[in-house]
Amino acid sequence: MGVTIHAKSDSEVTSIDACSPRRALYYVQSPSHSQQHDVEKMSYGSSPFGSPTHHYHCSPIHHSRESSTSRFSSSLKNNQLAVWKRIPGTNHDEDNEAEAENGEDIDYDNHSRSVKFYVVCFLFSFIVLFTIFSLILWAASLPYKPKVFVKGMVIENLNVQAGIDGTGVQTDMLNLNSTVRIYYRNPASFYGVHVSATLLELHYYRLKLASGQMKKFYEARKSKRIVVVVVQGHQIPLYGAISVLSDAKKQIQSVSLPLNLTFLVRSTAYILGRLVKPNFSIHISCQLTLKGNHLGKHINLTNSHSCTYS
């Protein structure tokens, strides 16, 4: 369909110029669908009269389009403003939640630290107090040292005869049987003691003639007892060390022989289990004289010069 361009009258031109005074205006008759694209090019792209590229229309349709566009843009701006108003609020809420979570974490950390501090203080105080209490008990137990002394000794039998030692050497052999009586007392009022001792050894100078072992026992608080220990020697080779015995094989009753009895007594108290464990040790050394005519008789060793206790 062809394009028809109509010229306007002067009155019409004047009315149009009032809307756009400096631009010449023209209009285009609606083309068919096949030529619509070309008509739009002609009306907006180029003009037969060399009109400028940009045109302004004062038609009602143009105003309606502008009003609808302005309403759309204003609604879009309002939506954007609403979004922008909502986003800071959301960020503020998130910040508040983060601050609340951080505050809770800080409170939890402070609580856990305070709990750990109190636990450490309690343990330290308990250890210090328990140590002080243990030291007090240990110091209180020191004055209650057990009382130990040797009451006496009985040499029941003494025999010297010729024999052969383990290597086949001929020498004099000694047999001796004796018993030792030991007095033991625990003066402590709040604990018992476990008592043990080393071997009781009977020497002639450096030659050991007899020995015996005291059995272990428990002594309750504020109690005492008499302990009997058997000290004996069997087939002890003399190798001529005791000439008195060698000369008096048949006359033992005329023998006088100095002897030395030594041993160590240990006493252990268990207070508060095994945490407080005071120990007491007493070394005993007794000097006595073996007389052949006193065999089987009690030898008193309670004299102050007979035994030493250290």
Describe the global form.
elongated
**Which segments are poorly predicted (pLDDT under 50) over 5 or more consecutive residues?**
1-21, 24-30, 32-66, 81-90
> What is the arithmetic mean of pLDDT?
75
Number of helices: 4
- What is the straight-line distance between the termini? 145 Å
The residue fraction in helices comes out at 25-40%
For the largest beta-sheet, the strand count, sense and barrel status come to:
7 strands, antiparallel
Pairing-aware structural class of the strands and helices?
alpha+beta
Q: Tell me the count of domains.
A: 3
Radius of gyration (Å): 63 Å
How many strands in all? 11
Percent of residues in beta strands: 25-35%
SSE order: HHHEEEEEEEHEEEE
Keywords: Membrane, Transmembrane, Transmembrane helix
InterPro entries: NHL41-like
Transmembrane segments: 117-140
